[in-house]
Amino acid sequence: MKYDNMYLFLTLVLVFGVAAAIPSAFAATTQVTIMSGSGSGQSCVSGPITCFSPSIVNISPGDTVTWRNGDNMAHELTDGLPYGSQTGILFDSGTIAPATTYSFTFQNSGDYRYFAKDTKWMVGEVIVGPSTGTSYAVPEFGNLAGFVVLVSIVGVVAVTRAKF
Predict the structure, then answer these.
(1) Is-contact 51 39, C-beta < 8 A?
(2) Span 133-148, mean pLDDT?
(3) Tens digit of pLDDT for each residue in 55-97?
(4) What phi, psi does 61 have (nearest 5°)?
(5) Which of 9, 12, 129, 133 has a C-alpha 20 to 30 A away from that of 114?
(6) Cα-flanking dihedrals φ and ψ of residue 118, to 5°?
(7) 94: which residues sit within 8 A by CB, 6+ positions away?
(8) What is the pLDDT, as a whole number, of residue 156?
(9) Residue range 8-65, pLDDT digits in tens
(10) Phi, psi (rounded to 5 degrees) for 50
C-alpha cells in the first residue's frame, strides 16, 4: 500500500508536469532585425530595404517577438503610431543597445503597430491571429492539445495499472 501511494504521487507529478509544459512547447519566437543604418536616415522607409526585417510579422497568440538591434545606434521601441496619442500601452522596450535584443510575448489577437521612439520613421507591425500559412508550431488540436495529451497520459497510466 505504501508503494501505491508513491506511484500515485509520481504519476500525478508526471501528468501535471507535462500539462504545465505543453503551452510553452507550442509557443513560437519570431525574430525581427532592426536593420543597419535605420537610425541614420529615412532611406529604409522608401528604399529597397526596410527599417525592420521583416517589417510585418504574423504570429499566434502566446508567441514571442524578439527584436535584435543590428544598427550601430540604440533604439527604443513602443507600441502605437509615431504621432499618436496612445503609445506604450502594451510594451516599451527601453533602450535596445546595438547587438542586443528585446522580447515581448503577445497574448491577445489583434494588429499591433509599433515604432522607434528615437526615430519616428521606423515603423513595423505585429499581426496576432490565425495563421495565414502552414505553421508547425501550432498543434493540430489547437487549444485542446494540452487536454488531449493529459487525457492520453492518464489513460495510459490507468490501463497499465489495471489488474485484469
Answers:
(1) no
(2) 44
(3) 999 999 999 999 999 999 999 999 999 888 889 999 999 999 9
(4) -55, 135
(5) 133
(6) -80, -25
(7) 76, 102
(8) 65
(9) 655 654 555 544 444 445 678 999 999 998 888 888 887 666 899 999 999 999 999 9
(10) -110, 165
Closest by alpha carbon to 62, among 101, 103, 23?
23
CA 92, CA 106: separation in Å to the nearest integer?
13
Q: What letter would DSSP give residue 59? A: E
What is the per-residue burial (b if ≥16 Cβ within 10 Å, else e) of 43-81?
ebeeeeebbbbebebbbbebbebebbbebebbbbbbbbe
Grid cell, residue 48, equals: 529597397
* pLDDT tens by residue, 101-134: 999 999 999 999 999 999 989 999 999 997 444 3
Cell of 69: 538591434
110 pairs with which residues across the strands? 128
Q: What is the CA radius of gyration of the chain?
A: 22
Is residue 104 within 8 Å of 128, Cβ to Cβ? no
Looking at residue 18, what DSSP letter applies? Answer: H
Residue 137 grid cell: 508550431
Order of strands, sheet of 29-34, starting from the edge strand that comes earlier in the sequence: 52-53, 29-34, 64-69, 101-105
